Amino acid sequence: MHPPSRQDYISINFAGQGSGSYNNSKQWRRQSCWRKWKQLSRLQRSLILILLFICGIASYPAVTEQLRGLTDGDPETDSNSVFPHVLPEAVKQDQPPLPEPTSQRKLSNRRGPPVLQNRLQKKENASNTVVEDKASDNKKEGEEEEVIRRGPEGPKDGENKEGSPANQKVQLSIQSVANWREAVQEAFRHAWKGYKDFAWGHDELRPLSKSYSEWFGLGLTLIDSLDTMWILGLKEEFEEAKTWVATELTFNKNVDVNLFESTIRILGGLLSTYHLTGDTLFLDKAKDIGSRLMPAFNTPSKIPYSDVNIGKGTAHPPRWTSDSTVAEVTSIQLEFRELSRLTQEPQYQAAVAEVMKQVHKLNGKLDGLVPMFINTNNGQFTHQGIYTLGARADSYYEYLLKQWIQGGKKENELLEDYLQAIEGVKNNLLQKSSPNGLTFVGEVSHGQFSPKMDHLVCFLPGTLALGAYNGLPADHMDLAKQLMETCYQMYIQMETGLSPEIVHFNMHQGSTRDIEVKLADRHNLLRPETVESLFYLYRFTKDQKYREWGWKILQNFNKYTKVSSGGYTSINNVRDPDYPSPRDKMESFFLGETLKYLYLLFSDDPNLISLDQYVFNTEAHPLPIWPSN
Ligand code: DMJ
Fold first, then answer.
1. How far apart, in whole angstroms, are the C-alpha atoms of residue 373 and residue 440?
2. Domain range enclosing 30
């Protein structure tokens, strides 16, 4: 017996569909199928139904995927779609296959026309970019972002290694960094053109008045720039400068020079150029200036005077005091020690070692932090109570570490003093700003903390990183990274994207911005410390963001400090992009340090001044790490 309902259904169905057309073969086939179905046993029908059900489940993901594709409106990815194609055929044919780089694979669930996919990709890149884009080339930034995420990984197994779109991006990125190096060379040439046209053989270019200023009258910019030209591969410019050194440079001059400045810029520059080129001209000149500076050490305490007359062989402190600056007397050691090693004349090394020995023993430090002045008569710290990592103390800390590295990490007192000082920084000077919690290094003045930080302090991230690289505690690297971010913020939060000389950090809750700048501190002297640290951080971490930051800074120097007739100028106001108020002076360290560190930051060759072989003096002149015997 057949259940009446089924019988009814069949009748209704066929009657309804028939419309008098049984001749229709489709309908006839359906009817005959139904008949066969009814002839099957209940077990057979059940088995067939179960099979059909299993097939349905198995094909479900494909079906849902297809449906999702349709609802997302992607006709390109659904060739069987019943929806009309949106793009004209011609466009579709020209459409290249969709790239499937690593980051786009993350988007594989997203559908949409390729154009939209590209846009989504760009948006995602932008949100991963740490920095704001003000005056920069977006395309290059995007390309560099690709390096950050793909460069170190390279293509995965099974990916098209030769011509995959991902690989092409890496190629482009490498090209970008090559362009950045070229931009540094171009900046150097531009600065050099101004110096050559208006200040050749003089100390500093005044680019706006197309003239020069003298400090020591020793061709300071030219000597400070020698090894930069060598490192940047500017051989023609280097040869011209070398000819000047060979034929014009004389130290037999009745002139007062500052011991520290002439040591780090002139002695340091000549020694490093000697090492890079092997040309004894530079060593001879180094010996000449080194020996002429020695009278500075003839003091009652053996703590040197600040000034020396290199023609007369006399030395003296500044007119108003018998004090010297602590950073100045403790940041000439790398150069004089190297001069002794090269000449095998011990007096240079002995003189500067005596200073370190005395400072090591002195009372008046705060957890290893030193005051800013030292008296040349009694050898004691004076004007005590102010502790800073900025002006007048900065490179004391830098040279503790670097002397230790230069000498093959054997001089334990230097290391102890350095480690103690970094603990002193952590315990006394380190704070976080409000609202964004930037880590900064403030100052202590007679027991009071001041949230003031000089741009000069931005040497510290690089020095901390160098120490960590040389086996010092790993938390030094963590601190280096935090401070690096802060130093970069000191640039990028200004309207010109250039840092002021000094900033003050907000610490009280409810502050609306982290960084304040006093009117008198708004100048920028083209200083190197931040790009110097970027160079170290990049060398040790290979994090491409440090290169992006350096690139932005270079662009801002180009935008706000470049003088069209040649040269770059210090500016008075980093907060006024419409009128940054040029100062009409190009400091020698812009060529000696800032551009050199930028070039090295963008260099892919870790052997271009390897940090296993060289230690940079505080004016960016690389000196060799002594071979261990
Ligand atoms: C340079 O002469 C040296 O880097 C020095 O250690 C600090 N001042 C300038 C650059 O800012």
1. 24
2. 6-61
